[in-house]
Design brief:
Elements lengths: L1 H36 L12 H21 L1
Length: 71
């Protein structure tokens, strides 16, 4: 009886392992297929200008000052 349970356990784990292995293989194949026919367009990285950085700093400073006033 224990050997039969062990046999079913190994069979079940083997089926799950096989399913997961096939899923990984198929997803990798799908990824390569999608990349081949629908490549991602590389956009030039726009580095933020000094003015944009200063605007962010001003917005953060204003938010902190507003928070301190409301307390």
């Amino acid at each position: 009886m224990v050997l039969e349970a062990l046999k079913y356990m190994v069979l079940g784990m083997g089926i799950v392992f096989l399913f997961l292995y096939l899923m990984v293989v198929i997803l990798n194949w799908q990824h390569k297929l999608v990349e081949k026919y629908f490549p991602q367009k590389e956009e030039p990285s726009a580095t933020p200008s000094k003015r944009d950085k200063l605007k962010k700093v001003a917005a953060i400073t204003a938010a902190i000052a507003h928070m301190k006033k409301s307390n």
